[in-house]
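User: I'm preparing a small set of examples for a lab meeting where we compare how different chains pack in three dimensions. I only have the primary sequence for this one, and I'd like the structure in C-alpha cell form so I can line it up with the others. Please keep the answer compact; I'll paste it straight into my notes.
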Amino acid sequence: MALRTALRALVTGFGGTAVVRTLSPTSHFEGGEWDKGGDCRRTRPYAADEARMAGLDLDFHAAQVEEFARAKAESEAAGARARLLLMDTTAAMLLRPDGHPSRYGHWAHENVTLYNDCVYWYLPGPIDVWNEMLFQMLLPD
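Assistant: Understood. Below is the C-alpha cell output for the 141-residue chain.
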C-alpha cells in the first residue's frame, strides 16, 4: 500500500525522473535467522542455479513489479510528465551473498552485541552493479 501511494504521488505531482529499486533479498542468512546465529560468510557469488527466490522475497518482489507496472501504465495513459524507471536489482543481488559485511561490519575493538549483517551491502561488487545499472538507465535514449 505504501509503495502504491508513493508511486501515485510521483505520477500526479512530479515531473522529473524517478528510479524505483526493487528489494534486496533477505535470504543470504545460513544456519539460522539474523538473531538466531545466522551468518553470511560466502566469499564468492552463487552460480545461477544455486539460488532461488522464494517466500517473502518472491512475494514482495512480485508486488513491487506489479505496482510499478500499474503506475507506469497509469502515468503513460494520463500523459504525465514523470519518467518512471524500474531498477530491478533483486535477481542479481540474490546471486551475491559475498557482498555483505557479516561479522566484520564494525571495528574489532568496539564493544557491541554482534549480529551478523547479511542485509546491507558494503563490499565491492554488488553496489558497483547497481551503479552500472543506474548509469545505463539514466543515459539519454
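A couple of notes for your slides: Residues 6 and 43 are 37 Å apart (CA to CA). The mean pLDDT is 84.

User: Perfect, thanks.
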